[in-house]
Amino acid sequence: MRSIIIALLCLFGSTQLMAADLKKGKKINKTCALCHGAWGQGTAGAKSPRIAGMTTGFLVKILSEYRSKKRKNAGMVATSGIHKMTDKHIEDIATYLAGIDLRNDPRFDVDHAKGDKVKGKEIFTSECKGCHRKNGYGKPKKGIPALAGQQTKYIINTIKRFKARKRVHDDDPEDDLFDEMFPKQEDMFNLTAYLSTLDDVTEPRSATLPDGKTILKPKAKSKEVKTAKAPIKESLPGASVSEITQTVAKMELGKGVTKDEAIVAMRNKAIELNMRLVGEQHVSKALEARGEKTPYLAIFQFCNLSDAKAIVHNNPLYAAYMPCRVAMVEDTSGKTWLMMLNLDILVDNTLVSKDIVKTVIGVNQKMLEIMVAGTTGDL
Ligand code: HEC
Ligand code: HEC
User: Fold this and answer.
1) Which one of 22, 35, 70, 340 would you pick to mutate in the ligand 1 pocket, going by the greatest count of ligand atoms within 8 A of its CB?
2) pLDDT at residue 219 in the model
């Protein structure tokens, strides 16, 4: 009997997999990768949660909620065209991401967060474990997501939003779990300190992608990968740059957003993020002044002085990438786009040294936020 059930489960699993187009999912994922990383791993910070390894069902649910605006994230929806996705597209991307297993790959282990882990464990055990499970990986079939492996700042930010009732927890608008929880911020940090230990690597191996390929050839018997602390030296070949589009992050100007509104929104966002607007060239306007008619083109340059200092100090070559630019450009069909160099491609190809990876990711995130503000006209 048991084997019949297993056989049926396998059959069900494989037909589901056949229905989704993983190639299409992989293609869609390139647009998600701008913010969530090439393998949905997320990055430290509140704006880039880990989405790899969530179940297909959970991802379909969340993406559908973004599409119907039940859950709001204008920047993400506009950038990845989620509002235009069919159910099939959503299933393709969800199945693709669900197939990425980053657990036990030391390179994706989240950094331990500051706080008292022992106290954090007490809170987790009494308040969260029942649903998010002892190992922190949740109950995927019941729609309960993993907290293990999730980016710490994202969890903190999400809890704050639960507390402020800006996001519904447990799909229950009446859920009051967080109302009285964490009267002291310290308790929240203790909890996240404990959560950040839950994905610690126990059996080192390399991550797997949904089409069965490993991101990295496992050094199965090599001594180097046997201990959790051993450094993994290989680069991640999955991100090798084969076409120019991979080096560029682009977003179409949202419906009803004028170029001028986009520019104001970008300028304001830059101030908020401490990115200085160090230059503006209105190329098409200048050409028109000379009597040459040309599609719209303007270039905006931003720079955070201390980040720039840290990056160039690490290697003067990076100065060639500075300052960060956003181009506003009209294509032949009259659509207006915002475009920038996607610095993540350097990180994904391990072209920046470890010491400044976080700074570079941070700069890229800020630039993306500026672009998102521009496309949505968000002030
Ligand atoms: C412009 C940046 C951006 C892009 C592009 C983007 N996202 Fe997101 N995404 C975010 C941010 C920021 C959040 C967290 C905010 C929130 O909770 O609503 C998020 C949240 C999510 C979540 C919820 C995660 C959780 O733990 O609840 C899922 C799932 C998700 N994104 C999937 C995707 C997919 C799939 C794509 C590509 C089709 C994509 N995102 C593209 C920025 C982005
Ligand atoms: C009664 C079951 C239940 C309990 C208890 C519970 N959760 Fe949840 N939690 C859920 C469900 C279901 C979701 C997914 C739906 C949603 O987005 O809120 C969720 C989502 C979350 C998320 C968002 C994760 C993401 O990827 O976006 C966080 C963070 C979270 N819970 C933290 C906690 C913490 C911390 C505790 C304990 C203090 C806790 N939860 C207790 C059921 C529960």
Assistant:
1) 35
2) 45
Task: Report which residue type is found at 135.
Answer: N
Cα–Cα dist 38/361, whole Å: 13
- What does the alpha-carbon distance between residue 16 and residue 25 come to, in Å, rounded to a whole number? 14
- pLDDT for position 207: 83
CA distance 13 to 337: 40
Residue appearing with tokens 């649903």? 131
pLDDT at residue number 12: 43
Cis peptide before 295 (omega within 30 of 0): no
Residue 155's nearest CA partner among 184, 117, 113 is 113
What are 126-184's pLDDT values in tens digits? 999 999 999 999 998 888 999 999 999 999 999 999 999 989 898 898 999 998 888 89
Task: Give residue ranges with CB within 6 A of ligand 2.
Answer: 49, 127-128, 130-132, 143-145, 147, 150, 155, 158-159, 169-171, 177, 181, 191
Q: On the CB side of 75, how many CA atoms lie within 13 Å of its CA?
A: 21
Residue 263 token pair: 């520019």
pLDDT of residue 10: 39
> Cβ(117)–Cβ(109) under 8 Å?
no
Asked whether the beta carbons of 50 and 101 are under 8 A apart, the reply is no
pLDDT of residue 215: 63
* Residue type for position 328: M
The answer to whether 48 and 365 are in contact (CB under 8 A) is yes
Token pair listed for 327: 């181009």
Q: How far apart are CA 243 and CA 259, in angstroms?
A: 28
Q: Are 374 and 262 in contact (CB under 8 A)?
A: yes
- Matching residue, tokens 């055990």: 125
pLDDT of residue 95: 95
Q: What angle do CA 276, 279, 284 make, to 5 degrees?
A: 140
Angle at 204 between CA 229 and CA 123, to 5 degrees: 80
Looking at residue 214, its pLDDT comes to 66
Low-confidence ranges of the chain (pLDDT < 70): 1-18, 212-246, 348-350, 379
Using CA atoms, how far apart are residues 130 and 124, in angstroms rounded to an integer?
Answer: 9
Q: In angstroms, how far is CA 18 from the centroid of its own chain?
A: 26
